[in-house]
Queue: 3 jobs
Job 1
Amino acid sequence: MAGIPVNWLFLFLTSFLFLDLAISANTPLAKKTYVVQMDKSAMPETFSDHVKWYSSTIKSVVLKPEKVEDTDDEERVIYTYQNAFHGVAVRLSEEEAERLEEQHGVMAIFPETIYQLHTTRSPTFLGLETEDSTNVWSDKLPNHNVIVGVIDTGIWPESPSFNDTGMTPVPAHWKGMCETGRAFAKHHCNRKIVGARVFYHGYEAASGKINEQDEYKSPRDQDGHGTHTAATVAGSPVHGANLLGYADGTARGMAPGARIAAYKVCWVGGCFSSDILSAVDRAVADGVNVLSISLGGGVSSYDHDSLSIAAFGAMEMGVFISCSAGNGGPDPVSLTNVSPWITTVGASTMDRDFPATVKLGTGKTVPGVSLYKGRRNLSENKQYPLVYKGSNSSSPDPSSLCLEGTLDPHTVAGKIVICDRGISPRVQKGQVVKDAGGVGMILSNTDANGEELVADCHLLPAAAVGEKEGIVIKQYALTNSKATATLAFLGTRLGIRPSPVVAAFSSRGPNFVSLEILKPDVVAPGVNILAAWTGDVGPSSLPTDHRRVKFNILSGTSMSCPHVSGVAALLKASHPEWSPAAIKSALMTTAYVHDNIHNPLKDASTGEPSNPYDHGAGHINPLKALEPGLVYDIGAQDYFEFLCTQNLTPSQLEVFAKFSNRSCQHSLANPGDLNYPAISAVFPEDANISVITLQRTVTNVGPPVSNYHVLVSPFKGVFVKVEPARLDFTRKHQKLSYKVTFTTKSLQTAPESGHLVWKDGVHKVRSPIVITWLAPI
């Protein structure tokens, strides 16, 4: 397993905390938004409801203006939270916020955080459309009663993916509504889109009023991201779906019978935490069963992460929360959304690709990918002048990135231009080349992207190539003044091997907030995903793109997250009694770690085998997850006990203990004792500690009489002993415990990974294991 030195982790954490402190600096007089968590049980008897108490508390700290003409009549409270989270979002000066911290009933104050979006064939690839799966995922399943809340950029209701033909009435437990606004009326909701809401007060407080001529101040999606993710979760089947002829077939969501509730929190300037928090709070009250959140805003400790706290509250109410891991890979320690009660999803490829070729004047043909289709075509029988504006072939420089204003039309007109990836969006580089008179583009990966190829719907003939081939092409252009090339586009190809492969951009562990919690949890399809699209922008999302399509192909952990959300909806439909933790366990313990040629999963950035910091427990396997045999269940109090091991103060713990009777029972001797499906043993810096014992409890959800035996992979650095080595169940839902003892035999310079599997002849309940030594060697 690739090593991540412990001192590097410390340096990264120190740097991160320094940056966090640096960006938090603010002038004391300027107002900004704060999310304030209140202790609901602390409301004085003199108040009849919590909203009045919250308002009174805020008014008590507001500083009076010194001059009459400076009278501050603005409404300070912009949101009130009452379900997954209790408190308010409020505009305050820094001094007022400091005064508020001292008030009775105030548990915590969080500055506003800006989150960013983590920007078919996948049902078939996941086994949801095979003959064997017909009965398993039949329309008879009550998945029409499962409602998935999608917190994103809104929804384009006219998409055929949201057709409700044949759907049963909206479930009785649904309490949400269809908010109206510009270009969004009541009739845009139906039996598929059961609810739609907008949240913008936090955004407007920070950025000013939304220009309603440029943006829809309604649930309508003009970005496309939210429509794409919603359709991936639960889109109705659409035959003949494609993007300009690419990926032609039937597009459907993971849970086509489930309902969608769209919560629009993202705007042109970003997604603000106060709006996201309000959406989570509202979604829980509305009655969603699953929350799909393809957003990320960096990493902080659990008690300083407002989304983590809101997700904890949602989990307490039985809601499964799936979040994208982020697109910060292949750098280590790049994960977001790492709380153990959140299912953190990385991205992988499928067995479908969109090949293109670059034919050089030397006769050499280089493989690439592209989604280009347009009137501007290059002749395969003609060679075009080739130019590269960089100074060397191995590393990009400003002139090679094809940024706006950097290309001279006199030197690129009529030529194919080689552009390095980085800084600006990939499709925008093509627009720059087109504006300068170039006839085509070769987009070259750099060492940051390796050999992973992501297809784009370019505005001119263009193909993306890997780093190694890119260096060859650039070297040819730099050393030959008459270098030439042409491009060819080969459509859609299936059966790609090997697949899946962990995407290079998919964010990686370890989870430095808690090394004992292995993240990401799983990987799912997130590269070149076809799903519904907005009618407001073209497939490249560039303002100069006047093409309009009903479906688009996107890549990112934003795309992998809704795959897991949709499969979770299917599992909830089949097992309505399962907790969010049981659903996560089923997804993790049945995940696979070998590709379609039976080799270990590979990392696209290196071509080498990936490890649990890359793929978590592995790639999701929905059919296996339906009947996992055993699950590792975790309740809200168990998660709270984990927090009790995280060196949090009583006041910091209180933000998760909204109910006065939740307190530390100290039932976990080690944070690694949380009943997590993955096992992470962390040997401390004290080299004298050479033995760690961790506890686990499994619940039988398979046949009442089941007999399991354990298998553990060998490790170089430790001896592993599991007691007992057999688990004999006599009834369904019976719980049995075991312990795993790790004894150091030789300190390792890097973390070591393996697995533990419980087998009964039918089921294989697999847990990844990671061993980390913090002691210097």
Note: The chain has four domains: 32-110, 121-351+500-626, 355-489, 630-634+675-772.
Job 2
Amino acid sequence: MSKVLHPTRDPTKMGLGKSIAVLTSGGDAQGMNAAVRATVRVGLYTGAKVYFVHEGGTVIGSARCKDFRTREGRMKAACNLVKLGITNLCVIGGDGSLTGANEFRTEWSGLLADLVRAGKISAEEAKKSSHLNIVGMVGSIDNDFCGTDMTIGTDSALHRIIEVVDAITTTAQSHQRTFILEVMGRHCGYLALVSALACGADWVFIPEMPPDEGWEDHLCRRLMDQRSRGSRLNVIIVAEGAISRDGKPITSDQIKKLVTDRLGFDTRTTVLGHVQRGGTPSAFDRILGSRMGVEAVMALLEATPDTPACVVSLSGNQAVRLPLMECVQVTKDVTAAMAQGKFEDAIKLRGRSFENNWNTYKLLAHINPPDVKSNINVAVMNIGAPCAGMNAAVRSAVKMGIIQGHSMLAVHDGFDGLAHGQIEPITWTSVSGWTGIGGSMLGTKRTLPGKMMEEVSLNIAKYNIHALVIIGGFEAYVGGLELVQAREKYEEVCIPIVVIPATVSNNVPGSDFSIGADTALNTITSTCDRIKQSAAGTKRRVFIVETMGGYCGYLATMAGLAAGADAAYIFEEKFTIRDLEANVEHLLEKMKTTVKRGLILRNENCNSNYTTDFIFSLYSEEGKGVFDCRKNVLGHMQQGGTPTPFDRNFATKMGAKSVLWLTEKLKECYRHGRIFANTPDSACVLGMKKRALNFQPLADLKADTDFEHRIPKTQWWLKIRPIMKILAKYDIKLDTSEHANLEHVVNKTGSLKK
């Protein structure tokens, strides 16, 4: 992310003398409230005055205002803002709302001149409010705004869809049915596409890429083929805006009639509708809303009259600022490309994330396994503790391997299984339906290969294994390193190796995210919601909640941000008895307000002396007469459950990408009729770093690893810990030296300057 450095300044005085108004507009989206909360609290933290614009769901009301579309309506709005001295506007909404806000800003000086002439405001008032700053956050479940990977509300909508798909799957399998699921997305197929990836659907219809001519025959062949392979159900996902190549709508009823008439399959249709907009926001949307809210306030307070209206958005794992109208233009370009039949351009204009999803879907769903085999055997295994999403990664790797012409081998029970020959072929049908299953279907153990290397190397030779996919946590990383070190002694281990991080702890070097961490985070967040709700009647209660993570404080920190915790104790940020005392004091003050409950999270290994029991006893004693305490140790429930849409999608892309990389490496390493891989770049961790999925040599990551505590030495999420403290109303200093600089929208069609 390009950064801009500022001279050191006091962040608590950045907003002095300034006023910020927050409004939500357009369709409601889960996570908007988190964005409003963050904008308000960070605005107040900087010393600014903050105003709500009501009806303008969210806590403050969300509306599509007809008055605002007229100049008279905008004059009224301008008058209201000037009278309150508001020159900073934070707009949370879709592209329509943000375009309207930018038009308002463009007209601002003209509106003020008209108001002065009409005697509604004085010349002095107009001078004080001569410039209007606007920053947008995109709240839209459709994820239809170009320039951002994820809009606020999209992940929560995916949760609602996948909950329904999982429920439908069980009934469909009982009766051998075909289910057609219609999801929202009038102009954007993101929800449909990611849902299809996340549930392993047989077909998806999206507006950006209509099916080829003769799709009816192709679809029927696909469904018949799946049934002939033993599948008991078929799932077809349809975006509400799906069209054919000639621009005519493709409806769920039309597809149902086709399948019923041609194949005679028992077919059912489910239209989800507004269910997708409702419910509690996911952990991802809460954190996204909170991070974007902080970035929006900073963007407003740093803006000058020359700064264009911008949107704060997400690129990979990075908060970025983009010119609002560039994003709006690219969003309009998508619609134009679709209208002109330039569907490849439409996919590219949607952005890298959308394009990657589409390419992965096409590879896994549309390509039949080749008749010619590659004579390559690729083994897949799980290592370490089980986590949700492991099976999705295995399924994706197996299917991609078969598509490449390889023979795929399943290794059961980790390195133990590799050493003891628990290895068998795994087929296309054997991994069907694995995407939504939690835990590890292959079986997994924590044992490392070092002491069994002789047996491991013999079995690699016996089963003629040419490449290895290791899916797991810190043990997978260390096990991979041990295999690399063993290459000096055992030639059999000189094969390409890829490690895919999968652990609730999110502690694998080389990746910002691990498969399984999002599911665990949602489990903790929803549990904290219920725990807090239990205090709604009793009041004056503080909950101490212990989370997993080993020595890594990721879960405690992110769950703290998502659940609105008052503190989160972690190993990476040392704390003393004085810090504990300050936290108790803070809660004693909080109990004097209208919010009479507290939430404290503690990572299981944050401090060997300040245990959960100790902190519980301390808070109980110090809070006597003011609040009482309860403690909860969440335990292994954090490793269980069905994977979230994020983990299913992430695992599917990681599994597919790892096998494509191995296929290329095998070509590089083929010498004199055999595979020989002994260079550092032939054994890598596949990880998400900032904005992209990257392969990093295992050997290169050693320097950034704290092996004693099983964590990376540098962890990106530590920088956002202060946000949690500010939102909990702690008086701390926020580092304002590093904030996102204004970037430009990048697309691959050449229709807009980079």
Note: The chain is about 40% helix and 20% strand.
Job 3
Amino acid sequence: MAPSPFTRLLPFLWAVLHLTGAQQTFSSSSQLDISACPITFYGKTYRQFYVNFTSESFVVCFGGFYSPGGPHDCLLVTPPDSQRASLEVNRRIPLMEMILHRNLPSIQSRMDCFAGFSLQHGGQSTSLALVSFGRLSALYLYTTAAGTVAVDVHLSGTRVRTVTVTNTPGDKQIRGYLDTSGCFYSGVIYSPGSQVNSPETCLFLNCSEDLGLQVSACGPLERCQGNGSCIEAPPETPMPRRTCTVVGPAVLDVHGQMRLVEDRCSYALLSAPDLQIVATFQERRRKDVGFLDGVILQLGRSDVHVSLDPGGRIRLNNLTMVLDGSAQRVYGVEVSKNRTGVTVQVSRSNLTASVFFNGDSVQLHLEGPAVPSLGGLCGNSSGTLGGVRPPEFSSTGCETRYSDAVDTSINCTLMAERCNVLKGAPFSSCDTDPEPYITACRDVLCKYGDVDGLRCQFLEVYARACSLSSGAALEGLRSRAECSPPVGLCQDRTCGPNEFCSETGPDGQPRCLCRALFASEYLERNTLGGSTVCRQNSASLSLVGCLLEDKGIDYTQLHLNDPACRGQMNEQTRMVTFSFNSSSCGTEVLTNSSHVIFKNTIRGQNVSSDVTRYTQFHMDSSCAQTQPDVQTVAFSVRGSTVVQLATSGSWNYTLTLEAFTDAGLSQAVQSSTELQLNQRIWVELRTHGLEESTVVMVMDSCWATDNGTSRYELIHNGCANPADRTVQVERNGQTASSVFSFKMFSFSESSGDVDLTCRLKLCFRREESCSPECSRSPTRRSARSNHRGAAASILDP
């Protein structure tokens, strides 16, 4: 599709923008004047921008500088190449007005002006404009940078919208648009002209295009009577607020008690009317430690559930949800996702629960009258596990406990010291008791080790608990604890059912490692995969992807004897399969008197010497198949085609034997065909169901009989009867079929039809030929004249 005139003029348009207005350049937190072009942003008019750079975003705020979760309306932009940008305030440009009218049908009024920021992403220009249309406004994002540039819209500290522009070599989006008109109230965006008249909640709202937001509602000390009137509310006792945390195998309930899960079952963390929150556990590196693996919210009826899976995947009744950057509501539950994890908000009549899950830990922030009497491990972790194990979410035998060898390399004293940092600054400013977190951290790390970012997970959940309980922001905790920012590195990384995601790859990237129980069956046999699967004339060997990854082996660099034959990864099972047959991929074929052996080797390419040694030690693959039996097939020359199913061990194929009156094998002999003595007949034996590139058929012997005792040899040891020059072998041991011809005869002592019987065998293609070596004596007379019961036509041509 040819680009539109608008697309072709956009680079010129942005060049014009950079020339028309007064430029304000900044490289640090700045307060910028836009009084020449006031912007009405979701119903509020602003005359100043507050801009600053953080490690995660370039931020533009209205009403004050940015603070996470703060009260201001802000735009958070993908961090630019450098902490330097500029702002220009510009008058109306008709071409830009036309572009926005075309892409935002909800805005058709006249453009007044706009304020545009200029940045650099990936060495390319990015422009972000806030455009005024009087009481309406729009956000316009333009970039040619490769990859994705995003703008998150935060209103009153909550992200409500996201605008993204993604450019790939095959698809350049370049532009993004958002209507920022309307009003925002109590977490909801209302379009211009919207009205709410709700006597039940005493909310009367008007989002006027001219006057902005007009709201009438009960005050903070009032209560709605349900008829549109408010009365003074009686003093309320503070609602109980509690936090329940699960990190790895450790469950910390709302009372600060700790429980370690040692199996692979699912357990209810919270049980309340119309709501059950279940944590699923699976082993990771050790068989005797169960790790948090997922969270399930069961809502009301048992057939409605929201599943939070590793990798940040969210499923509603097993259907994957796709979030566009803003929160979604399903069955009264609000679901949102960012770079750190997934958050689910759910409210019931006497309980509000906020669930945050990042793949390694889950934290429940609970509030309401029902908190003190909650069921599940969060209410009381010291009860029996069987009573909180939902059978519909737990597999049979999941409660079996396994033992594992003690890891003597773990220094428990050092682990305790690392966990004890929760007692010092900056954690000392938190009013949440650190002892349960320290105990859980010490017990788990002493058994499991400080791997997979586990220690930092304990620090993060404690910091989050402090923030939830008192709003305390623990500055500098990550640098003191030597932990990276809480970004879910394993988000959007899908591992197999027998794998878990680890954030400790040698290149700093997440990788999929094997779960201990799954890996144990291979490690006990000192192998990287299963046994060779043998078929009729082919074989395959599957290697375990996560075992290869753990050894640092890139499966794409492995191949069979033929470098062109490489393994294929099954994305569901994460198994890497190498397949070959007896004539492909450099397979060696060996035979003896009883077996045919296919042999191949998986080899490394561009890998270290250590990996090469390990690969060669484990990657030989061979199949020994029983030699197929010699088959015998018989038919009458005047009869129809004979079809016979041959079965010998793992060999299954079909044999056909058919006679023809022409050398082209196109005129088959039928029961009604008139055959003359001395007429030449061609006979074809053919196999079906065998791979001709691997196996050929060899005709060993054929003879004629008269349904009695008379027998006449036509083919012997794969060659024509040397005593009979009328017999000719046309093809034998070269393909899936063998052909010979002879002149028709009859037995002198019988008036019946001539019957043929043939014996054949299979030959595997190798360097040597499968065709029999035949020679005739030049002075040999016909054997038919001497044969007992000789044929009536015995003369040579």
Note: The chain is about 10% helix and 40% strand.
